[in-house]
Design goal:
This protein is an all-alpha fold. 81% of the residues lie in helices and 0% in strands.
Length: 296
């Protein structure tokens, strides 16, 4: 691949992960809106925006691009429920001062992926991965003991996103097309919730800025995904894997330095353990990547 294409892919990859890292700021702006209401808006606006984007990209081939089998639709309904559950947990956590927990969850996620591969795909752990998982598990358990309960938010985010990746891995559907169907299949329940279950007093209390920010939720969802797909076609999976740590790192810094969340001794131990585990599993792929011939 030409170096210019690689650089464009790298720029797109950095953009999407930086975007995701700063996403808590957006949700903080609408923290007066219940998390479920935010998510229903996100589903509806994302589905509409994805349809417009795909229609523009595919033009006359739109119907062919969107074509999936009934079995695939059922699987997409499952994966859609998982990713939207993940969104709901994330938004609720951000709006309740738990950005630090979301950061921990997405740091744990690569390790959860290794565990799911072992459990469901028959993959085997090497010694390095075993050591990394033991370190991550022990320090996460320590955090649970320290705070008096398991770190439910972090674990729920890591597990739902890991399961989402596992389900989508089995499905031969392009990412943006898949997300279109995932949101579209849940669009009717989302509309039903907004039109019939949300109290009128709640919506009447929203000002123009709130309505505008809720409408932007579709762009907040779709824009970084477009960047991610652009990057994924031009970068190695190893490099994408390293870039993914940008988002939780930014969220971590936002939580501690900007929003002043409590970074306890237990959190320090847990994050130190997770970062150590990530360094252990990342060193070998990084060295392999660095030994490759430069792109020309």
């Amino acid at each position: 691949m030409p170096e210019s294409e690689h650089n464009k892919g790298l720029a797109a990859g950095v953009f999407c992960f930086v975007f995701w890292g700063f996403a808590p700021i957006y949700f903080k702006l609408i923290q007066h809106v219940p998390a479920l209401t935010i998510i229903t808006h996100r589903i509806i606006w994302a589905a509409l925006l994805l349809f417009v984007f795909l229609a523009f990209r595919e033009r006359r081939h739109l119907l062919t691009a969107l074509k999936v089998s009934f079995k695939q639709l059922l699987v997409l309904l499952l994966s859609g429920s998982l990713i939207i559950g993940n969104w709901l947990i994330f938004v609720w956590a951000v709006n309740h001062g738990q950005i630090l927990s979301t950061s921990l969850g997405y740091f744990i996620n690569p390790l959860v992926n290794i565990f799911l591969g072992l459990l469901f795909l028959g993959e085997r752990l090497n010694k390095t991965q075993t050591i990394a998982l033991l370190i991550a598990a022990s320090t996460t358990i320590y955090l649970g003991i320290y705070i008096g309960e398991p770190p439910w938010i972090a674990l729920a985010l890591a597990i739902t996103f890991g399961l989402y990746g596992l389900v989508r891995k089995q499905l031969d559907v392009r990412p943006l097309v898949g997300l279109f169907w995932e949101t579209s299949l849940l669009m009717l329940p989302a509309l039903f919730y907004l039109l019939w279950l949300v109290p009128i007093e709640q919506t009447q209390s929203f000002d123009r800025m709130t309505w505008g920010l809720l409408a932007l939720s579709g762009l907040i969802t779709v824009l970084p995904l477009i960047g991610f797909n652009y990057a994924a076609k031009r970068l190695t999976l190893t490099l994408i894997g390293f870039l993914q740590y940008i988002a939780p790192t930014i969220s971590f810094l936002l939580a501690v330095l900007f929003y002043g969340e409590d970074f306890t001794f237990g959190h320090k131990i847990a994050f130190a353990g997770i970062w150590t585990a990530l360094i252990i599993i990342s060193t070998k792929p990084l060295l392999k990547m660095l030994k490759r011939k430069p792109v020309v």
